[in-house]
């Protein structure tokens, strides 16, 4: 979800994006992944058309995860691809890959893992909060954004998408004026 979910079409205005995922399987899993957008190379990718990544503000580790890797979709590469930051052991602070400029980030993916064993239990949840800003040239429109969560264990996996809209309205100028005189009558006779 975006907060605020509605903004005006001025570059540099900020919003926060909260993403999350839960293991709703009937068993423990070995990885839980959160990715936004589902397809970073698709036309209309919100990270390329409307919003620029500024920072990864917070992360909630799922129970049972022992490591995590943050990746950014680097659009500056001749063939855009995911670029990984170094793996971090739980419950360490996750960082964005330092080799990708925020302006070139076309998406984010965080893979929480319990390595080779399935130790992320049923109902375990993960989450992250990103700070984003309106890109230069943003126009008034509704920008749909579909993220996904994925769990995996052995050869089994399951994904679930979620969509949130970021609504941008045109910036307008308006003004009002007011005036009052109290009292509104005066005598013209001298005293």
Largest sheet: 8 strands, mixed
End-to-end C-alpha gap: 70 Å
Query: How many runs of DSSP E, i.e. beta strands?
Result: 12
The tally of helices reads: 1
User: For the CA atoms, what is the radius of gyration?
Assistant: 24 Å
Proportion in β-strands: over 45%
Q: pLDDT below 50 for ≥5 consecutive residues: which ranges?
A: none
Q: Please give the share of residues in helix.
A: under 10%
Question: What is the gist of this entry?
Answer:
The chain has 191 residues and is mostly beta strands. 2% of the residues lie in helices and 47% in strands.
Notes on the protein architecture:
- With 191 residues, the chain is an all-beta fold.
- Helix content is 2%, strand content 47%.
- It has 1 helix and 12 strands, in the order E-E-E-E-H-E-E-E-E-E-E-E-E.
- It has one helix spanning 46-49; strands at residues 2-3, 6-8, 14-22, 31-36, 51-60, 67-74, 81-84, 88-89, 105-113, 125-134, 141-153, 156-169.
- The strands form 2 sheets. Strands 2, 4, 6, 7, 8, 9, 11 and 12 form an 8-stranded mixed β-sheet that branches.
- It is elongated.
Give a quick set of tags describing it:
191 residues; 8-stranded mixed β-sheet; mainly beta
Task: Describe the SSE topology.
Elements: E1 2-3, E2 6-8, E3 14-22, E4 31-36, H1 46-49, E5 51-60, E6 67-74, E7 81-84, E8 88-89, E9 105-113, E10 125-134, E11 141-153, E12 156-169
Parallel strand pairs: 2-12
Antiparallel strand pairs: 1-3, 3-10, 4-9, 4-11, 5-10, 6-7, 6-8, 6-9, 11-12
